[in-house]
Every structure is written in C-alpha cells, then in structure tokens.
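User: Let's play a game. I give you a shape written as tokens, and you guess the letters that built it. Ready? Here's round one.
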C-alpha cells in the first residue's frame, strides 16, 4: 500500500529525499508543494548522457549479460538551459533529489502524465529497493514521437515517486549492502558485472 501525504511529509523530515546543499541552484531544497496525496514529485537534474552514434560497417553490440554500457556522451547543462530530445532518441538523465531509502521503504518512479502525453517515454527500470541511499535516480528516457523534438529543462518536474512501507529488510540483505548503485551523485550508466 502506498505511503500517503502525512506520512510522506514525516519521512521527508527524516531525510527520505534530500538535495545537495552545497549546490548553488534554485532547486536546492525539497518544496512541500512536491508532496502529493500518494507520491512526491521529482525534478530533472542537469546532467544527461546521450547515446552516441558509432560510425562503421557494423553496429556495435552491447552484451546485456555483462551489463555493458551503450556508447554515450555526457552533457552538463547550466540551470535555465534546455536539452533537445530528438524523435527516437534515447538518453539517461538524473533527478535533482537524492534518495535515502530506509530499510522499511521501497519506491517506484512514474513519469508525469503530461510528458507521457507528449510522447516522452521511460524505460521500465523504475523500482528502488529498501536501503538504496545517497543517490540520485537515473532515468531512462526516450522520445517516442516521429516528428517532434521534446524540450527538457533542468529543474522541471519530470515524474513522481510512489513509496511503499513494509517489514524492514535485514541490513546485510538490503540494497545498502548488496546494491551496486549506492552513492551515485550523478546520472550513471551500467556499472558492469562485479
């Protein structure tokens, strides 16, 4: 069952989501207006990784079993600048918010419906396990339109996160210990097989 408004505010006060306080930008705090009835809005960060075209006779292969990354270029925008997502283009992006899930809370990311209605799509890697901490959420975004460029801007509301409360996971079995995407302070591609 999702955690709702009053409990979401309580969990926020305990540090469920934070923002890097050392960054000098207009999005350096969590605003109470981000809290909805059963979710919290998250905003787009300013670092993007864009799939890079590789010239050559054959298309490059990516071994999913080895968790290989796509060939990508990193783009860091200034606040107030825009990123133009062309038709069919795939990127990785990040949230402004830093996640610190306690051992009794999991979360699920959902794209804002206004973006989805304009052909913005997200991949299905939307789940966050208990214990995932000190990390921005990496978003997999694609422009599904055929004829329109989508404009993304750092700081814009990109999605909402639904939080679920359950029995605490033992620390040694939690994502805090077993996960490989903890402490990711910016958008992150595949880390490969350990």
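Assistant: Ready! My guess for every position:
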């Amino acid at each position: 069952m999702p955690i709702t408004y009053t409990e979401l505010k309580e969990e926020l006060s305990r540090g469920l989501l934070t923002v890097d306080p050392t960054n000098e930008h207009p999005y350096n705090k969590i605003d109470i207006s981000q809290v909805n009835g059963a979710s919290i809005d998250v905003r787009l960060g300013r670092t993007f990784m864009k799939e890079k075209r590789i010239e050559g006779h054959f298309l490059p292969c990516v071994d999913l079993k080895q968790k290989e990354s796509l060939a990508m270029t990193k783009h860091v925008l200034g606040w107030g600048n825009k990123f133009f997502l062309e038709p069919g283009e795939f990127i990785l992006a990040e949230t402004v918010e830093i996640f610190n899930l306690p051992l009794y809370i999991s979360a699920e990311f959902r794209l804002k419906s206004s973006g989805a209605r304009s052909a913005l799509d997200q991949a299905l890697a939307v789940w966050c396990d208990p214990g995932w901490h000190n990390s921005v959420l990496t978003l997999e975004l694609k422009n599904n339109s055929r004829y329109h460029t989508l404009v993304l801007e750092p700081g814009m509301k990109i999605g909402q996160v639904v939080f679920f409360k359950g029995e605490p996971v033992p620390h040694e079995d939690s994502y805090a210990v077993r996960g490989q995407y903890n402490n990711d302070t910016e958008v992150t591609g595949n880390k490969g097989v350990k």
